[in-house]
Amino acid sequence: MILDSETKAVELPEDHGDELRLWLRLLTCTTLIEGEVRGRLRERFDVTLPRFDLMAQLDKVPEGMTLSDVSKRMMVSNGNVTGLVERLVESGHLDRRTSDTDRRVQVIRLTKAGRAEFRRMAAEHQTWIADIFSDLSPKDVRELMRLLAKTKGSAQKSAQKRAR
Amino acid sequence: MILDSETKAVELPEDHGDELRLWLRLLTCTTLIEGEVRGRLRERFDVTLPRFDLMAQLDKVPEGMTLSDVSKRMMVSNGNVTGLVERLVESGHLDRRTSDTDRRVQVIRLTKAGRAEFRRMAAEHQTWIADIFSDLSPKDVRELMRLLAKTKGSAQKSAQKRAR
DNA sequence: GCCAATTGCTTGAAGCCTAAAGAAATGCAA
DNA sequence: TTGCATTTCTTTAGGCTTCAAGCAATTGGC
To answer: CA B153 → C1' C13, Å?
Structure first.
């Protein structure tokens, strides 16, 4: 911050190029890996990434979740979840019922077949990920985890500021 | 690697949980930031992220690029670019002409208005990114850059292995 | 020159995704 | 109780995205 001739605060255009380059690199990495995973899921299991992700959320919670829960966890819109769930119920992977205590709420769970199918996919998926990251040492992995956690915190803070 | 009683190589199920957690964190970070940027672009400039990205590619190359170039750089499909370009030409941001030397090729460039509009958006965009990453020290940024470069290399190697 | 393979782009079908508006159910306060 | 705000989900319109198939132009081998 500097002051001009009439003692008014003036912002100098700062250099934010490094952050921008970092963001682009982060995006490139993610896009690259996401594309790779998407392609393999399609090839091996004929399943889309969003469906896999949704099933992954449900696998963690056997008693099921509401659509809103899924929406928050996957960081996608409500309407999006509605459609995804529709198709997964249709294909027999998901079970859906209205809550007993609140008739607005839909609780979804993996069916037995859906769970079996997901487990089969997840096991292989994990080896793909390991292969994709195989050049990184355990120390690299730890360090990346730490820095990404810090990044996430920073981004959330920034998002919160805007939301007000 | 261990050997079984008949001296055959046997793979033990290894633990790949750390890599998986790393991937999920990477994805979360990117999704979070991407959503934030998308929202701000829409609010402030009523533009979508893909359009902004496409214009960013073109801003770097005043003489223009072919659709294939754009497709490779943005890491999206050809058909996707066709549609994006169509809408941006329609809105007057892009200029499109058939190559003189190869009539299959379409060369696209920013129009004068398109360039001005992009520069206006890009300046503000850069400050958003700086704010989003503001908790990271310069050292953090350097370290993240390094580790993501390594990650990208590793992912590319893995992708190449599969593509054969 | 001719033909086959390749390259650059478009099209079509299907699915993903968002924002915004709306319907239904709930909760809360007067 | 009534009325209003809120929550949960769905719907709609529009755009993004992929894959696969197809068309047109070019290139390279003969």
So the answer is: 35
